[in-house]
Amino acid sequence: MMTARDRWRMYKRVSMMFFLAVVTLTVVQRGNINTGVPFQLEREAEKEPTISKRALLKKDHFQESRNVWNTSIEAITEKQGETEYGGSRTWDVASTNCTANPNFNNMGWFVGLEANFKQFLLYRHCRYFPMIINHPEKCSGETYLLIVIKSTITQHDRRDIIRKTWGREQEVDGKRVKTLFLLGKSSNELEKAHHQKLLEYEDYIYGDILQWDFLDSFFNLTLKETHFLKWFATYCGRVSYIFKGDDDVFVSIHNIFEYLEGTSADNLLVGDVLFKAKPIRRKENKYYIPQALYNKTHYPPYAGGGGFLMDGTLARKLNRASETLDLFPIDDVFLGMCLEVLRISPIKHNAFKTFGLVKSKSSRLNREPCFFKSMIVVHKLLPADLLNMWRLVNSDLICSQKAILL
Ligand SMILES: *[C@@H]1O[C@H](CO)[C@@H](O)[C@H](O)[C@H]1NC(C)=O
Ligand SMILES: *[C@@H]1O[C@H](CO)[C@@H](O)[C@H](O)[C@H]1NC(C)=O
Ligand SMILES: *[C@@H]1O[C@H](CO)[C@@H](O)[C@H](O)[C@H]1NC(C)=O
Ligand SMILES: *[C@@H]1O[C@H](CO)[C@@H](O)[C@H](O)[C@H]1NC(C)=O
C-alpha cells in the first residue's frame, strides 16, 4: 500500500520526467544540441538564409521580375523586414580577395575614362571587406538615437570635439544616445604606420570606432555607406533612429529630439534633400560623373551626406536595397538610388543645411549663434569654430526665431 507521501513522491517524479522529456524533445527538434549558441539566436538564424545567400536570391528575384516590380519591392520591404536582426549576428566577411575585374579593359569607353573612375570600376564588384575594429556591443539594449559619423584616420581632433560637444553619449529622458565613427584604412603608408596605432589607442579609450579594411578614398565613401548599413542590420535590432553625417558639422541633438517627438512617419529619411539634381559633367568638379557611369538627366531625390536622419527600420530596408544595385561613386546619390528602389521619398527640412552655406562664407549667419541654435545640422565648421559655437549656443542665449524653422 502506498502512503499519501509515497504517492506525492511518485507524482513529483513522473511530472519531472515528463517535463524533462518535453524539454529534450524541443531541443532535439530544433537541432540545437552541441552548438553552444544561445537558443534564441539559433532559432532566429534558421528563419533567415545567410546574408550572402539572401543577396543572391534577391538578385535573381529582381532580374526575373522587373514587371512584377511592385511585388518584389514588397519582398524587400515587408516580408523580410522584421526578421533580419538575429541572423548570424557577426560580421561575416573574414578575408578580402579583391582582384581587378578584367572585363573592362577591352571596352572602348573604359579606356578613355579618368584614372579614378577606372580604379572605381575595376574594383566595384568587391562589395564587402573585413573589419579591423568592431564594436558588436554598441547596440545592445534599447538605443533611441545612434549617431554615426564618417571620419578618417588623421581627423582625431574633429572626433575629439564631437565627443565633447554634440556627439557625446548620454541619456535624455531615459532615451539613450550612442555614437560611432566610421573609418576605412589610410591610403598613405606613412600615415598607416603612425596613425593606425594611435587610432587603436583612441578606440581603446572611447570604444566608438568602426574600421573596415578598405581604402578611405572619396569614391569609397559609398563602401562606407554600405558597410555601415550591413553592420547595422547585423548588430542593431533596437535602435529607433540614426543620425548620419560628416565630422565637420554642427548638430543640435536637442532639435533632433524635438523634431522626432513631433513626427510619427515610417520610412523616415529627412535632411537637406535635392530633387532633380543634375549629374555634373564638368571634369574639374569634385562631383564630376562621366556619361558612361550615369546617363540619365537627373539623379533621384537624395539627402546631402553632410547630415541626415533616418529610422532604424528604414536602414535595414536600405541595406537590402543596396545589395540589388551596382555601387555608385557618390555616396549620398547612391543612397538616393536605394530609396528609389524602395520607392520611398526623402523629406526636405530647412533646419538641415548641408549644401549652400559654404558658398556664403561671409554670410552673417555663419557667426550668428541664434541661427545655429535653430538648426539641426550646419555644414563645414573647423573644430575650434565648432567648439566656440557650441559654447555660445549652450550659454544663456535668448533667441526669438526658432519657432519659424522647427
Ligand atoms: C504593379 O505594377 C503594375 C505595372 O508596373 C501596375 O499595373 C499595377 O497596378 C501595380 N500593382 C500594384 C498593386 O501597385
Ligand atoms: C582569389 O580570387 C582569384 C580569382 O577569383 C582566385 O584565383 C584565387 O585563388 C583567390 N585567392 C584566394 C586566396 O582565395
Ligand atoms: C576602395 O578600397 C579598395 C580596398 O582597399 C581598393 O582596392 C579600391 O581601389 C578603392 N577604390 C577607390 C576608388 O579608391
Ligand atoms: C544608359 O545606360 C544604360 C545602362 O548602363 C544602358 O542600358 C542604356 O542604353 C544607356 N542609354 C543611353 C541613351 O546611352
What are the SSEs and their pairings?
Blueprint: H1 4-29, H2 39-47, H3 51-64, H4 69-79, H5 108-111, H6 115-122, E1 131-133, E2 143-150, H7 156-164, E3 170-172, E4 175-185, H8 189-206, E5 209-215, H9 221-235, E6 239-246, E7 249-251, H10 253-261, E8 269-271, E9 273-274, E10 302-303, E11 307-311, H11 312-322, H12 331-342, E12 347-348, E13 352-353, H13 369-373, E14 377-379, H14 383-393, H15 402-405
Parallel strand pairs: 2-4, 2-6, 4-5, 8-12, 13-14
Antiparallel strand pairs: 1-5, 3-4, 6-11, 7-14, 8-11, 9-10
Bound molecules: 2-acetamido-2-deoxy-beta-D-glucopyranose (4 copies).
One 2-acetamido-2-deoxy-beta-D-glucopyranose is lined by residues 98, 119-120, 123, 214-215, 217, 219-220.
Spatial gap, N to C terminus: 83 Å
The Rg value, from CA coordinates, equals 25 Å
Counted by DSSP, the helix tally is 15
SSE order: HHHHHHEEHEEHEHEEHEEEEHHEEHEHH
- Which residues form runs of ≥5 with pLDDT under 50? 31-71, 78-87
Structural class comes to alpha/beta
Would you tell me the overall average pLDDT? Answer: 83
The portion of residues assigned to helices is: 40-55%
Description:
This protein has 15 helices and 14 strands. The radius of gyration is 25 Å and the shape is globular. It has three domains: 51-80; 127-350, Alpha-Beta Complex (Spore Coat Polysaccharide Biosynthesis Protein SpsA, Chain A), CATH 3.90.550; 364-405, no CATH class. By secondary structure, it is an alpha/beta fold. β13 (352-353), α13 (369-373) and β14 (377-379) form a beta-alpha-beta unit. It has helices at residues 4-29, 39-47, 51-64, 69-79, 108-111, 115-122, 156-164, 189-206, 221-235, 253-261, 312-322, 331-342, 369-373, 383-393, 402-405; strands spanning 131-133, 143-150, 170-172, 175-185, 209-215, 239-246, 249-251, 269-271, 273-274, 302-303, 307-311, 347-348, 352-353, 377-379. The longest helix has 26 residues, at 4-29. The site of one 2-acetamido-2-deoxy-beta-D-glucopyranose has 2 residues, from α4.
